[in-house]
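Q: What does the assembled structure look like for these inputs?
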Amino acid sequence: MTLILEPNFAEPGRRYFRDFSPGDDFYQLLIDAHRDLTDEQSALLNAKLVLLLANHVGDIAVIREALQRARENLAPTP
Amino acid sequence: MLKTYEYPKFEYRRPAELDSAASGRRPVIVVGAGPVGMSAAIDLAQHGVPVLVLDEDDTVSIGSRGVCYAKRALEIFDRLGLGDAVCDRGVSWNVGRTFFGEREVYSFNLRPQPDHKRPGMINLQQYHLEEKLVGRCAQAGVEIRWKNKVVGVQPGSRSVVLEVETPDGRYAIDCDWLVVADGARSPVRHMLGLDVEGKVFTDRFLIADVVMQADFPAERWFWFDPPFHRNQSVLLHKQADNVWRIDFQLGWDADPEEEKKPERVVPRIRAMLGEARPFELEWVSVYTFQCRRMQRFRHGRCLFAGDAAHQVSPFGARGANSGVQDTDNLAWKLALVLGGQAPEALLDSYSDERTLAADENIMNSTRSTDFITPKSAVSRTFRNAVLQLAGHHAFARKLVNSGRLSVPSVYAESLLNSPDADFFAGDMVPGAPLDDAPVEIDGEPAWLLDHLGGRFQLLLYVERAADADARALAELKTAIALEPVLIVARPGGRPGLPVLHDVRGRFLERYDALPGSAWLVRPDQHVAARWRRLAPAAVRAALARATCN
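A:
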């Protein structure tokens, strides 16, 4: 498995008539999850989310690639 | 300040009601001669319903206001007989570019599919559109009374009585049905004590119409955090007559009166365009917005449409466009009810279908607003992360939300639909607005949608015109007029029937057509039902269902 970089959001059983809808559904869920949290709580939520999703992905090669991509333009690669 | 446009002044005429007590009751009165009210009036007139429009003013919209008219609204204008006039006057565009800082991160093309008559969007100042609509109203026999302000409404179970104020005094007039299209502040809604629920956004935007000679392409350009307006967003649109619309996000703390002053506006625009480019300021306004709607759009004999019924943020051009779609949905239903061919329940389906459409518009424009103007530090971090990734990765480009531009709603859950009994692929499900396709009629190029709408039609797809089952077509006699239309794979005619040749196979592809497939199409060009085999009894049942009979 390699890291998927094409649009990949969908909800089983739902029909989408517009290609932007599934991604927008995800983004709203993400932003709503942070509503009314302090910055510190938000940072903790994000950390937990990364851990949960990383465990779900499981494949450490994929996670390594995602981490590299996420770090691009922030600092030299460690 | 205006340099390119002279506002017309429409003539006020003393209404006859001021001199004679008893005037005839009107079948329909429309309040508000904006794009929505006038579209409703023209549509009703085309259905043979006499319409009176009342407007408190005597000119068109001041400033460019609603600028972007989407493909679906243009298709409706085609049906109303002014599509060409609007498109010829406007600037058509399909490409939108999004910048983050100094870099382009994303672009889209609104019309990825070829072979549609109308482009994804045209930009046209609202005053130009309204002038065309006023002209078309006159042609269609719609009476517009300027300087006639509704100051009282008495809703009744059998009629609605209006109190109208004119420069010469007041008069009363009654109607069977009242179409309320008097805008976001809707005086009529207030007089009826009806609520509109939703949320107000705490942000302010400056909009300026700027006249300049510029060789920028006719594209929508959107900046997140540009160097010339840090930490805020900016939007640029080209309009007719070298007028450009620029939107600057200002933030909630901005003073609207101060920000409107040329000495504040001009430096902002100069920072954007550069010192060298000459321009003139035509019109400036500072706005805030709401995302909200009425719970129901039908209240007895009062039918609410456009901003009077629902309001959205401007991101996505979903205001005027959805208002025109309201009237597209309403006019044929009201005409059938007035003609005694459908029960009043059909008007509840107007409310059902268009409140769902309003929810979709509100949801999309709220999402765009939350992306453009993040409300928290973490929201801003995610937004900027999406924009950074968008420079490299397709998945992130899809998440960039600088406005999801107006597309029509699919009334997939509507009670007017007959559910599919047969399998079809593609998006032309019951409730969907029809996709256009190029066709030929007697060898002459034409467009599918130009031949549909205004009445119920039955599209029947066959290989050759002669293949159509004459007996089944003859059995289609229905109480509500239903016109059969043949779509044929191979050229050829058939006496007494409109025959459209699917010259490029686009109908076949977009509708997943097979020889013998049939579609029941509503007067507003939405699918009501579809079948793989034409069965007159099923068609009659679907037509009854689509009209609440």
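Helices of chain A lie at 21-33, 39-57, 60-71.
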